[in-house]
């Protein structure tokens, strides 16, 4: 990149935070250091950035950066700085010791979906080839996996069906369980652009979020009742003859079962389950089915449930039954929470998947990957377990050692006391991070890694558009990339030339080949093409292919029969039962100033000033005043927060944001019940009570 007359260089890249992946320039001074940000007129965000994006650069040269490996042999001793050789030799010795004594699967690995796609590919390969363990999973398990499961079941492909720009063409936009204005702020330009054109905007969310306040209709349903609500909406559509029968006949299987299932959800019954008005259900049905082009986008509010996959399927059913698939302005998508929420789940760091979205249980898929990786088929481990299940395996000493990068489970996993117990039981834990997170502070070894501005690589945003992040500065001395660390560990573990990667580009070239011919085909995407175009949506099978911004335009899905496989959905109550002691619903979520576990944003001045601590939102009927200390109690623990008294929150619901650690961690309170298919935790609903506390 070229310096201007002041010596300053503008490096084009993308925000490291959410799945919108706004384009930005990082400002680099004559000394080669990142010192600021400028908006970039990228197609995704058109010069806009949100508070997180504007402040992201402050991480890069932050005084809290880890700049040397840290080591301690016992958790009750303080960390000592050490050389890389000492840290890596100790790590390799512990991996060998644990695996020789207890077997390969006794050592686990956890990755993250804020890593570049190259690094997520490497995490999966390192676990299977260097560690030879089945226990590999990642923090997207806490984020997008319910949508992923539903997408695969219905369409045979796991991504949004439409680009963001299609929202502008829609006549009815339904946002379900997504606080878009705070979690994906720049997305609002599309939603409000559609509304300003005259589209109906419907928001289905227990809370009156900023976007809900601007909607034509806000439906504040009771947490944990999503599929009952969407089944009832489809019931009305069927009852009133508003389905697209030709589309259903030509393009789907399973419609009769879906139709029979929604019979059981007449609006008066669903209104009772969901705590909303019959007229709201009828209105949503008529606006959505009556629109020429309708779209539904959802996020964690729908997905973080023990019935998360069903919730997503109930929304897919609504879109398909009304023929709103595969057309400009008509479709379906999930808003990925993490920067690389989409790319992070495509290429092998998920316990059940191999690169290219291949199934680890499919013999042909296993054969293909073994060929690419150059390993015998019987050396490729079997499917592992999910992140929360791995914690329980730690508690049972089935997993005794762990290497982890890009996650902070001490804040982000549910039922914190159980999580802490699991990690405390580990005989050896090495964590890679650039700040000393709450989880890293509990490890035996901490390896300092680069931030996003210190390496290049690709990410896929919520549209499945692959974008390229560029390197803006060299890392501090003593800091290494995840790529270098994993390759160096692999070499010391005796993998020969299987990890001969020097750069992200080297990894990307292998990833392209590993994905070729799969549904998640990246073969036609090159770094050069990404730099020229600003992003390409996969599948992209050849270097001449333009990419696939909108799916299903030819009426075919990615199932072998080309049909949409509709799935009937039955609602069940949340796992944590309400009773006289715990009569309220606790729901959790994010706030505009912070990202995920807050390990990054809780250090950035302006964001901390904007939102220094968590709170609990309560309805005035509970008799608390603003700022009054309120204790939230669940079957797993309690925490005290200042009250934010809101007329708009349901009297039977309280809300706590989750970005902070113990003792105010929302995840002290949440339940670790999992969706049986996606294994996502039920963060969005558990039974609770509130009571006055004396101090914060
Ligand atoms: Fe970054 Fe998302 Fe904000 Fe865009 S909307 S600046 S990608 S956090």
TrEMBL record:
Read off the InterPro entries from this record. Asp_de-COase-like_dom_sf, MoPterin_dinucl-bd_dom, Mopterin_OxRdtase, Mopterin_OxRdtase_4Fe-4S_dom, MopterinOxRdtase_cofactor_BS, Prok_molybdopt-oxidoreductase
CC per GO annotation: membrane
Query: What Pfam family does this protein match (any one)?
Result: Molydop_binding
Q: Does the keyword rRNA-binding apply?
A: no
**Where do the 4Fe-4S Mo/W bis-MGD-type domain residues begin and end?**
8-64
Q: Which UniProt keywords apply?
A: 4Fe-4S, Iron, Iron-sulfur, Metal-binding
- Say which domain of life the source belongs to: Bacteria
Where are the residues of the annotated region Disordered?
A: 336-360
Q: What are this entry's molecular-function GO terms?
A: 4 iron, 4 sulfur cluster binding; metal ion binding; molybdopterin cofactor binding; NADH dehydrogenase activity
Q: Which GO terms describe its biological process?
A: respiratory electron transport chain
Q: What is this protein called?
A: Nitrite reductase
């Amino acid at each position: 990149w070229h310096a201007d007359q002041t010596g300053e260089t503008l490096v084009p890249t993308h925000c490291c935070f959410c799945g919108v992946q706004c384009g930005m320039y990082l400002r680099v001074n004559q000394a080669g250091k990142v010192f600021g940000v400028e908006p970039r007129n990228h197609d995704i965000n058109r010069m806009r950035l949100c508070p997180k994006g504007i402040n992201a650069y402050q991480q890069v040269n932050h005084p809290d950066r880890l700049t040397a490996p840290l080591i301690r042999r016992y958790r009750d001793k303080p960390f000592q700085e050490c050389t890389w050789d000492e840290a890596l030799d100790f790590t390799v010795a512990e991996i060998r010791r644990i695996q020789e004594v207890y077997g390969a699967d006794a050592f686990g690995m956890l990755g993250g979906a804020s890593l570049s796609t190259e690094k997520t590919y490497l995490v999966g390969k390192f676990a299977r080839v260097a560690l030879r363990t089945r226990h590999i999973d990642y923090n997207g398990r806490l984020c997008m996996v319910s949508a992923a499961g539903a997408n695969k079941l219905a369409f045979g492909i796991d991504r949004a069906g439409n680009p963001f720009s299609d929202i502008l063409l829609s006549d009815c936009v339904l946002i379900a369980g997504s606080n878009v204005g705070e979690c994906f702020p720049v997305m609002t330009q599309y939603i409000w652009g559609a509304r300003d054109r005259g589209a109906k905007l419907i928001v289905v969310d227990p809370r009156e979020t900023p976007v809900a306040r601007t909607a034509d209709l806000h439906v504040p349903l009771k947490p944990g009742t999503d599929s009952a609500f969407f089944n009832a909406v489809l019931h009305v559509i069927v009852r009133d003859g508003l389905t697209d029968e030709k589309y259903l006949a030509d393009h789907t299987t399973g419609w009769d079962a879906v139709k029979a299932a929604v019979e059981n959800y007449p609006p008066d019954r669903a209104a009772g389950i969901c705590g909303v008005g019959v007229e709201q259900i009828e209105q949503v049905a008529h606006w959505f089915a009556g629109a020429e082009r309708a779209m539904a986008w959802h996020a964690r509010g729908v997905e973080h449930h023990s019935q998360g996959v069903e919730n997503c399927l109930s929304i897919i059913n609504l879109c398909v039954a009304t023929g709103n698939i595969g057309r400009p302005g008509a479709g379906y998508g999930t808003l990925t929470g993490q920067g690389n929420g989409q790319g992070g789940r495509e290429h092998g760091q998920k316990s059940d998947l191999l690169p290219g979205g291949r199934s680890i249980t499919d013999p042909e898929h296993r054969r293909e990957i073994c060929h690419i990786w150059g390993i015998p088929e019987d050396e490729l481990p079997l499917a592992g377990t999910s992140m929360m299940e791995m914690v329980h395996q730690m508690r049972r000493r089935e997993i005794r050692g762990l290497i982890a990068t890009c996650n902070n489970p001490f804040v982000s996993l549910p039922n914190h006391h159980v999580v802490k117990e699991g990690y405390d039981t580990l005989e050896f834990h090495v964590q890679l991070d650039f700040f000393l997170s709450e989880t890293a502070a509990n490890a035996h070894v901490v390896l300092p890694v680069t931030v996003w501005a210190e390496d290049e690589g690709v990410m896929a945003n919520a549209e499945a558009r692959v974008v390229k992040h560029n390197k803006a500065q060299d890392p501090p001395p003593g800091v290494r990339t995840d790529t270098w660390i994993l390759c160096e560990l692999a070499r010391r573990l005796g993998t020969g030339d299987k990890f001969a990667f020097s750069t992200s580009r080297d990894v990307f070239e292998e990833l392209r080949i590993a994905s070729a011919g799969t549904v998640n085909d990246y073969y036609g995407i090159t770094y050069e093409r990404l730099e020229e175009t600003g992003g390409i949506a996969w599948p992209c099978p050849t270097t001449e292919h333009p990419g696939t911004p909108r799916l299903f335009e030819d009426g075919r899905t990615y199932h072998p029969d080309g049909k949409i496989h509709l799935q009937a959905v039955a609602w069940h109550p949340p796992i944590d039962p309400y009773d006289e002691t715990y009569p309220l619903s606790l729901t959790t979520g994010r706030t505009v100033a912070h990202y995920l576990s807050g390990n990054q944003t809780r250090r950035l001045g302006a964001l901390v000033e904007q939102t220094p601590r968590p709170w609990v939102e309560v309805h005035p009927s509970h008799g608390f005043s603003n700022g009054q200390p309120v204790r939230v109690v669940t079957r797993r623990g309690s925490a005290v927060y200042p009250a934010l008294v809101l007329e708009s929150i349901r009297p039977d619901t309280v809300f706590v944001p989750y970005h902070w650690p113990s003792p105010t961690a929302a995840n002290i309170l949440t339940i670790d019940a999992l969706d049986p298919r996606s294994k996502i935790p039920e963060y969005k609903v558990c039974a609770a009570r509130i009571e006055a506390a004396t101090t914060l």
